[in-house]
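Troubleshooting log. The previous run stalled partway through. Resubmitting the same two chains, unchanged.
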Amino acid sequence: MSFPKPISTIAFDADDTLWVNQPHYDEVEDNFAALLSAYLSREAVSHGLYEADVRNLPIFGYGAKAFMLSMIETAIALTDGRISGKEIQRIIEMGKEMLSRPVQLLDGVRHVLDSLEEDYALMVLTKGDLLDQESKIARSGLGRYFQTVEIVSEKKPETYRKILDRHGLQPDEFVMIGNSLRSDILPALEIGACAIHIPADSTWAHEQVSEANVTDKNFLKLDNICQVLDHFETPIRHS
Amino acid sequence: MSFPKPISTIAFDADDTLWVNQPHYDEVEDNFAALLSAYLSREAVSHGLYEADVRNLPIFGYGAKAFMLSMIETAIALTDGRISGKEIQRIIEMGKEMLSRPVQLLDGVRHVLDSLEEDYALMVLTKGDLLDQESKIARSGLGRYFQTVEIVSEKKPETYRKILDRHGLQPDEFVMIGNSLRSDILPALEIGACAIHIPADSTWAHEQVSEANVTDKNFLKLDNICQVLDHFETPIRHS
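Second attempt completed without errors. Output:
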């Protein structure tokens, strides 16, 4: 399968597509569980945190601040309020540290962007916290590749429709690349766009959906981002 | 002073320009201070919270989640960690309640939008938390008036420049209306756009700047949003 023109715009998800993200959350969750180990088992902490994260999504949205608040709520609830102020401050410090970590690009990302930037309009299309995502784009050093950065609160079919409308694009001119079937792939396919799924090593449970039924002709699943170049009509510049 | 065409686009700040916002923060701060009144004076709480808010701005940005995290940090720091888990949960509940309050439009807003919508492209241009602002626009019932909603992490001159570029607008085609000299007025004037300042009853200390020097020919200060209609060439429909 190849994507001939008229594809004009290639949109990339950011977290766990361009750079490492979920492993940072997993690591903070490990440290959070360690902090609560005097009170609770690892499993009880993970279960409680996941419940709080999902319960708070409609009001807090995605991102590190929401995650911090859900950790604090979980810690208070699971310890029956016995958690100390100093331990809660430690949770906030973990979140702040995560928010200012260096951005670690995934292998091959820069090469792929270098190869595509002359022939396609490149876009970042990511959900999450506005300042957090802007800060990661800045720290990633990738900002110059992207003509457009779209940060949205949720990736639904109408989100994609609006963004295509805003840029005067037809669905067959647009391809979405990302690690989440739920957010990057299914809604893009639903509006008739193309979508490339590149699973990440670690995906948040809430983003996981069954992929058994994805048989759309506009759908492609790849093992890594470098393989994207095999599917576009562009002179591939080997680095 | 009147704004003749070529003004094509009128952008409105949201919080404390279209609807009540700062009074909600002030009220939560009052309740927060009451919660800590066994430990500290009102003044000490307000001073500590403001310090935390401003210190955390570069990493947390604007909005209710940042405010909640700063309240929690302040409570822990000012009580030397003696604050209880249940009291911290109470702070989170205050923030959640604020995030889901009905949106209270400021007087005259709907009439002004009704009067302008046929002759101008209307925009919301607000900083803050992405999901929080989207949710307020939805709850306000004003969404249909606006061709564009721009939610940004900070309002600097380059923010305005980028937004004008994105919409193919020249500065003299654009007017920004808002309550904050620092965020809505000065950066818009700096790029050569027009700006209308409508002070709110309550403004966060961090947004306050001296207005002694604003003598720009593109600047206008009004007492309330209804007066906006006196300065545009449009048939005013009296409601």
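Takeaways: The first helix of chain A runs from residue 22 to 35. Helices of chain A lie at 22-35, 42-60, 64-78, 85-99, 109-116, 130-140, 157-166, 181-190.
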